[in-house]
UniProtKB/TrEMBL annotation:
Origin superkingdom: Bacteria
Name of this protein: Aminoglycoside phosphotransferase
Originating species: Nostocoides australiense Ben110
InterPro entries: Kinase-like_dom_sf
Amino acid sequence: MTPAHATSCTAITARPTSWSETAVLDFEEARIDHPIAELARSTVLLGTRFHDWGPVGPPTREAFRAGYEAVRPLTAAESAWWRPLILWWSLLFVPEGEDPTGWRAAVLAQIDDR
């Protein structure tokens, strides 16, 4: 196994038998949490890197949740935590001062949606 270095992740590549067998493990973000907390966090962070580090809209969040629930439906308790956790994770990204990526507006829209 040969370790490779990247800015925010540790990559380990096994000697592949074909080029399709490669893995990248990001230990910086490794964590253990309740499934609904992980789902909400992943949903909020879903588009950040590929959306100018800004929030994704409700249709994207709902599509991500629907895909998850196609494999593992949420319990009633988890469903009750969905919106508060999405709001919580979104609030963490609202910057002080200027907000060029729109986190503040996204949070206010979530609050108005209630």
